Amino acid sequence: MPRDVPVGNGNLFVSFDASYQIRELCFPHVGQxxxxxxxxxxxxxxxxxxFSWLGPGWDIRLNYEPETxxxxxxxxxxxxxxxxxxxxxxxxxxxVYVRRVTVTNLAPRxxxxxxxxxxxxxxxxxxxxxxxxxxPETRSIIHYxxxxxxxxxxxxxVRSGVEEFTCGSKEVRGLEGTWRDAxxxxxxxxxxxxxxxxxxxxxxxxxxxxxxxxxxxxIAAGRAYQEVRRLNQTVLGKTPDELLTRTRNFWRVWVNKxxxxxxxIPENMVWLFKRSQLVLRTQIDNxxxxxxxxxxxxxxxxxxxxxxxxxxxxxxxxYALVKAGHGGIARRFFDFCARIIHQNGYFLHKYNPDRxxxxxxxxxxxxxxxxLPIQEDETALVVWAFWRHFQKFRDxxxxxxxxxxxxxxxxxxxxxxxxxxxxxxxxxxxxxxERWGVHTWTVAAVIAGLRAAARFAAAFGEWSFHSRYERxxxxxxxALIERLWxxxxxxxxxxxxxxPDGYRLDTTVDASLCGLVLFGALNPRDPKVRATLxxxxxxxxxxxxxxxxxxxxxxxxxxxxxxxxxxxxxxxFITSLWMMRCExxxxxxxxxxxxxxxxxxxxxxxxxxxxxxxxxxxxxxxxSMGVAPLSWSHAExxxxxxxxxxxxxxxxxxxxxxxxxxxxxxxxxxxxxxHCWEADDGTGRPDAPPADVPPSPGKGS
Length: 701
Fold this sequence. Notes:
Elements: E1 4-8, E2 13-16, E3 22-29, E4 32-34, E5 43-47, E6 50-53, E7 59-64, E8 71-77, E9 82-90, E10 96-105, E11 111-119, E12 130-135, E13 140-145, E14 148-155, E15 164-169, E16 192-195, E17 197-207, E18 212-222, H1 225-238, H2 240-255, H3 267-282, H4 299-302, H5 311-323, H6 327-340, E19 365-366, E20 369-370, H7 376-393, H8 396-416, E21 428-429, E22 436-439, H9 440-459, H10 463-483, E23 485-486, E24 491-492, E25 495-499, E26 502-506, H11 515-518, H12 527-539, E27 549-550, E28 571-572, H13 573-586, H14 590-595, H15 598-606, E29 616-617, E30 624-625, H16 631-663
Antiparallel strand pairs: 1-2, 2-3, 3-4, 5-6, 5-11, 7-8, 8-9, 9-10, 10-18, 11-17, 12-13, 12-16, 13-14, 14-18, 15-17, 19-20, 21-22, 22-25, 23-24, 25-26, 27-28, 29-30
Helix pairs in contact: 3-16, 5-6, 5-7, 5-16, 6-7, 6-8, 7-8, 7-9, 8-9, 9-10, 13-15, 13-16
């Protein structure tokens, strides 16, 4: 079940399922460790002898307050005649999760209503050796194991601290957990349990007819009892509402710190652009790791999670953040990369937030031959994104500390990991982590990485390195054109596998062919590139009312429709947004760049009210599928919107210039923008405008 409305501060992360149950709680890193790990922390209501945990029977609407990482959740139960209006946040500074619950008695009579909060924690992600106990000093329930402590407490209108509670065992001797104890409206008050444990607290309220009351509930996370005790005192001293207010204000400033020209852009697109920045930030650890996703339900499919940092995903997210002006977060990612890069200059499959090597299915040996288990695009794209960062922020002192130990180390690997006979990169795994070979996406990424390294070398005055990297990139570009073009298909192949007589092409249509344009490997208006993108657009279109673009023809990941002609694969947000980005890059007129917005309209049509984007959609219903939120989905929203804003601004500027020239009788208005063509033609030099377009006015004009 995809997650929704995640909240966090880069150390403490909390997210919910559609039933507003806490399903992920990570500390001290985002994604590591997950102290819920597939379990459920329930929230329930008792009144008039009836009990209901939030879920079936409730009308639950999950959303955020505008431009914040503070939730706005409405829950109503017709039978119980109870309404809950909730706000959740993790304080931007302290490692405290806070919930504010406004309880409304919808009945025309006074009633006793009780709230129950159940905690099924598995500290360090395991079910062995936990303790839960009532602490009379802090009047709270504390779960602890080794160096992990979670303090849980509450406050109602007249008192603070836990008064109704129980601690117990779960999943042993037929015991389901203390949440069952709550269903009669009373808790037994067991003060401690050890082993595989859970706990539940209750908050009794007396409400007048149509009356309201406010309850606060919070969880403090720390490494020792003294730490969570101090955090609890902080909440009591400042009040939970003050923490919510300051966190609300912090995120509104954070997401609006840059000024962009949104004139003429639909408001819902601006909303999703800002929401994507905020959601992406929840998936980024303060130590720099960009987590692909924090949704532990995927364990039921693969017995593993997405709670890792893939350098590729991180690089693409860093690029998006750089575009949006969040240089500080991007710098943390590059610091992270500098600490995990292999001594030989490459990045392995994926990493944990604490910088340790994560799980992998890529073998080091195949057919009795040693194989380097990498996806080379991951190394190349880190260098490429780092150059984009330097282009925008010019933080030379930051770059200097990483120039030799990371940038040049990676560049040297890219330069030598080349087939000397062809000039193409040596085989590695593709971006989808499924195939071994030489892949067009990877070739495009390596060309971009080498050109970025060349520019870094030039910036530091190392011209011999600059020339060498450019020379290797030029040869690789030519090899790409000669060896990965499929004449019978009239388009580029997805990839190739080395064989005794050359390369055997894989001509499966794959959305990753967009990398030819996204990374500037080839001229975006080259007829071969246009033909390739046309094939992607036409052959990967999902031919249902949902629409969108599949990953590749015959994709089986989460497949639900067997008809591969109508549904080549489930539609993904990232692939559909790649089409928008390619169209923006190719655009030469205002009309062309505006036409690209149809892809963002498609995203808005299928995203939930909260704006939290999943990996993919059900091709028949449009329901979110796969993990959610997927960081990559939100990064693509940010990149697409920023590239659209920049291209539109440049086109408008150039249109005005050409109109001015036309008014002077020197040039006819063609609504062209020769100086907006940022995409390289693959040589690393700006694409030249047509000969009849006059030069931009400037020095000497």
